[in-house]
Each structure stands twice: as C-alpha cells, then as structure tokens.
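Notes from the pairing session

We agreed to fold both candidates in a single pass and log them together. This is the raw record for the first candidate, unedited. Please don't reformat it; downstream parsing expects exactly this layout.

Candidate A
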Amino acid sequence: MEECQIKIVIPLSKKDYKKGVGEQVSATVMRSILRDIIKGVTGKSYFCQINQSSIFFPDLTRGVVVPIELNGKKTPIVPYHHVAHLESLIHQLK
C-alpha cells in the first residue's frame, strides 16, 4: 500500500477539539485514508504516524502512532481523550 503525507490537528483542550483546531503536524497515512479525507468522510477513525514532533506535547515525537478522526472537510484531528493525559507545555506554563 502506498503512503501519503497529510496534516493532522492535535487539540490543546477539549474546547479546541470541539472546534477542530489546535497544533498542526505532518503525518503519514495510507492512500485509502487520504481518499476518505478528500471525499469529506465524517465519523471514521484511523491511525497515522507522526512525521513532525509536537511543540506542545513532548511525548508526541516523530514516529509515534496516534489515532485520528475524520470530520468532513476539516483537517483530521487526534481525539482529545488521547492527549488529555499527556504532559503539555500549556500545563507547565500554568
């Protein structure tokens, strides 16, 4: 199967997750997943491999596999419950 590069969103809060916003990083997915993204599919979940380390979540480094949710024409997003327990720079600044 052929791999493709996409951008994914890592939400910094539950509010960001609901809005579909957050830190954007590069990730690798299979071409079939890219087709669903282009079609605007909603409600499907997949996994991808991060190609670019997160600035806000030090544990999300290059090579880490994370789940993503497709939400129509918006950029695929990591479910908030997946990152809620991770140490983030935002928490360290508070």
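Candidate B (folded immediately after A)
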Amino acid sequence: MSARTAGYVIGLGLCDTFSSLSVKLVLGQEKAGVTAALMTLVIPFTILLDAVFQSHVPNLLEAAGVALVLLGTAAVGARTWWKHRQDSRRTWLLERMNFLTSQPDDVKQTAGL
C-alpha cells in the first residue's frame, strides 16, 4: 500500500468519525427529522468532492438526482420553517390576548394542578 493510499484511508476514517460525532451532537440539539433532512446533503457534497478530487464530471442522471435531493431538502426546510412560524405566531397572539397567562405556583398547588 502506498503512502498516498494510506493517507486516503486515514482521512476517510477521520471523516467518518467526525461525521458520526457531529450527528450525535446535533441530535441532542435538533429534532431527528431536521437532522435526517440535512444529512441528505451528503449526496451533492459527495458528487462535488468527486468532481474536485477525481475530475469526474457528473452525467445527466447524476445531476438530476442531485437536483431532486436539493429540491426535497428545500421542501422539508420550507415546511419546517412554516410550521415553526405558525406556532410562534399563534403563541404570540395568545399571549397578546392574555390566554397564556402563567399562574403562580401556590395557585397551581391549591387548584390541584
């Protein structure tokens, strides 16, 4: 095995370790659906790195696949953003109308809450 090949294997192992640790850390901070949607971006980055390091130009089928992945990720992101926006606007409206007033702890305890 040449030194160049060994370097590639070591680099691949380090990248895989970094990827696994990153996913573990992100899952602690974000929902699994969002994390999975962002992980689909591995495919376009793989094709980009393939073009940069191996001078492989993607054919029409590969380009169409990348476009579908990017479109799907954008759709999931837009849907998640819209749902979060609607929830925050609903909460803001309820607070403004005084429907979400918090009760003191002693009132909750006497009410059996």
